Amino acid sequence: MTVYVITHKNFTYSYLPQKDYRVLLVGAEGKDNNHNYLADNTGDNISSKNATFCELTGLYWIWKHSKATKVGLVHYRRYFTNNSSQTGVLLNQIAGRPRKPLTDTQLERLLGKKKWIVAAPQKLNPGETIWTQFAAAHHIKDLKKTKEIISEMYDEKYIKAFDDVMQQNYLSPYNMFYTRREELNKYCEWLFPILFKLEKQVDISNYDKYQQRLFGFVSERLFNVYIRATAKNDCQYVGVVNIQENNKSDAFNQVATRLRLRLSFFKHKLKNLIK
């Protein structure tokens, strides 16, 4: 097994389990690689697309080059940890408990006979869906075009999964996973043809640098679509810890904000019912 730690820069990683975690530098072309990380610009690669594809240039490299029978993708500051919910991760942070990445043994045990380990779903704002959130944060025409492409390329189950996911109030974020090699192959064979076709059909030349990360943003939603279509009841949800967040008050504020938003939402619904 190999868990690839995606990074775009040099970083300190003394907290990582030494066994089976490998650092992969993305957008590696022209960057200093003083630590001799693996680099996504070798062999068959799309490293030059990193500004628009984000961590997917690393995913593509892993797909084309990794020989591991089980493969994971995490980020230099985000890792799977031993909580089944994101709220649990925040409560541990408030309590000052150690926040460590899972070891290979722990990942193996959690995967068991499931197809995937993925990030525990994170709730959006009350009343918000994945579709409306994307519309508010990005360009909804690009997501509409994505749906068109899926309908042209794949069977109906993916469109149904797309529609279902877009109406959800929660999302498994970050494109993080741990899975068997054959599952990774099937996912990448599904995902990248969609994104390459989308890349040809949308114009992002006038987008700012943030919005030009379109294909990374879209892929986060598409990963949820793929999981729903192929492994809805066959994945293990695991909390994600941000190693660089050490402030207990920040974690407390995140939990308090979530509770306050939900209380406000339910008060509003109750008020409408009474009317």
Structure description:
This is DUF4422 domain-containing protein. It holds the Pfam family DUF4422. It comes from Limosilactobacillus secaliphilus. InterPro entries: DUF4422. The chain is an alpha/beta fold. The protein has helices at about 50-55, 55-65, 85-95, 105-110, 130-135, 140-155, 155-165, 180-200, 215-230, 250-275; strands spanning about 1-5, 20-25, 40, 70-75, 80, 115-120, 120-125, 170, 175-180, 235-240, 240. Helix 6 (about 140-155) crosses helix 8 and helix 8 packs across helix 9 (about 215-230). It is globular and about 50 Å long.
Concise synopsis of the structure shown:
By secondary structure, this protein is of the alpha/beta class. It is 48% helix and 15% strand. The chain has one domain (2-274).
For the termini, the CA-CA separation is 58 Å
Helical content stands at 40-55%
Q: Going across the biggest sheet, name each strand in turn.
A: 3-2-1-4-9-6-10
What is the count of β-strands? 11
Structural class: alpha/beta
Computed over alpha carbons, the radius of gyration is: 19 Å
Low-confidence segments, ≥5 residues, pLDDT <50?
none
Order of helices and strands: EEEHHEEHHEEHHHEEHHEEH
